[in-house]
Amino acid sequence: MLEIKSLVAAYGEITALHGLDLSIKKDSIVAILGGNGAGKTTLLKCISGLLKPKSGEITFAGQSLVGKEPEKIVALGLSHVPEGRLIFPSLTVRENLIMGGYLGTRHQINTGIEKVCAYFPILAEKLDQQGGTLSGGEQQMLAIARALVLTPKILLLDEPSMGVAPVIKDQIFEKLLAIHNQEKTTIVLVEQDADLALDVCQYAYVLETGRSVLEGTKKKLYNNEDLIRVYLGG
């Protein structure tokens, strides 16, 4: 469904990805693990068109994404929930959700808002409240819901557990599993909480300094001593 081959990306003279290869299958949850500076966020930015790679290929459903504008990539069915949420704090919850459906018709937006509010009932209760007044966990739910308004084929999630209380973190991941199972949404999950990510994914890649150093099913990675020592605290 999503193929990444020999991807090289840089910020000025600093290379962040060094010939990365990944394959994301349809209807899967794939975790991208690694420490700070591993290239996880850079990878998602390249996929969603926020950063133009220096070389390599990104192909989605047979179409190249390299060089496409972000809105064109969204129109193809990829939605990106960035690190730090980046909701519109001065807009209401409803207005934030409308922004998530800006490429759709009024009917599609209204239907999408109704659907995401069913997944996140707390948002339905606060539709007329400014986004900036929500708790950190509620803002993360809003960021995810905004990305789901038009029912994307692939959801790119960058650190959804960051800065969220443990009980809310568990709720968010339960919702993500429900969305994956019911909507058949493919999820690419960038996450530093490796234990949590491996609990929900079917497959994972481990990045270090812009390179994939380990990959496999969650069973394989759970049994990998190096991963357990470095990322799972074993």
3D architecture notes:
- By secondary structure, the chain is of the alpha/beta class.
- It has one domain: P-loop containing nucleotide triphosphate hydrolases (Rossmann fold), CATH 3.40.50.300.
- It is about 40% helix and about 25% strand.
- It is built from ten helices and ten strands.
- The strands form two sheets. It has a six-stranded mixed beta sheet, sandwiched between helices.
- A hairpin with a 2-residue loop joins β4 and β5 (about 65).
- α3 packs parallel to α6.
- The longest helix has 18 residues, at about 165-185.
- The chain is globular and about 45 Å long.
- The mean pLDDT is about 90.
Instruction: Give me the CATH fold name.
Output: Rossmann fold
**Number of domain modules:** 1
The amount of beta strand, in percent, is 25-35%
Which CATH architecture would you pick? 3-Layer(aba) Sandwich
Give the overall pLDDT as a whole number: 92
What value does the Rg take, in angstroms?
17 Å
Structural class: alpha/beta
Largest sheet: 6 strands, mixed
Low-confidence stretches: none
Percent helix range: 25-40%
Task: Provide the spatial order of strands within the biggest beta sheet.
Answer: 6-7-8-3-9-10
User: Count of DSSP E strands?
Assistant: 10
CATH class: Alpha Beta
The ordered H/E elements are EEEHEEHEHHHHEHEHEEHH
Overall geometric form: globular
CATH homology superfamily: P-loop containing nucleotide triphosphate hydrolases
What is the first-to-last residue Cα distance? 34 Å
- Supply the number of helical segments: 10
